[in-house]
Design brief:
By secondary structure, the protein is α/β, with parallel strands linked by helices. The chain is 34% helix and 19% strand. Helix 3 runs parallel beside helix 4.
């Protein structure tokens, strides 16, 4: 029997990483590189960079020209709401807030819209747990 997180990770192909840094020393870069090495297409979403990990960056989710399966958020908790609102408007199936990122109100709003939400959880650690 698989759990919902395993199902999400197995079904997903494209992960938009909001707040991805082009600096290899940043956690967002390491997590995105791990996901990329494990077969996911990474889309950097950060208006402050041109690209990262060989991929073109976009200023926001609505600018991304392809289907997104997971929005992985590396932003401060107080900056999550607009990202979640965008994910809801684009009908993205999963919003994943990294460790120490939490917005209970936005999470409830996303769940109400039928989106699977994780808060304060590292996608790398969850993937590694399930795919050893």
């Amino acid at each position: 029997m698989t759990d919902q997180i395993t199902e999400i990770l197995n079904a997903a192909k494209t992960v938009a990483v909001v707040g991805l840094s082009s600096n290899p020393m940043r956690p967002s870069y390491g997590v995105a590189a791990y996901l990329q090495m494990n077969g996911y297409r990474i889309i950097p979403v950060n208006p402050g960079i041109n690209g990262a990990l060989g991929e073109k960056a976009y200023p926001d989710l609505k600018s991304v020209p392809e289907k997104i399966d997971i929005v992985n958020i590396f932003r401060r908790s107080d900056q999550v709401a607009p990202v979640v609102d965008e994910a809801i408007s684009l009908n993205i199936p999963c919003v994943w807030m990294q460790e120490e990122v939490e917005d209970v109100v936005s999470a409830a709003k996303a769940r109400q819209a039928g989106i699977f939400v994780l808060m304060d959880s590292c996608i790398l650690k969850e993937h590694r747990k399930r795919h050893r």
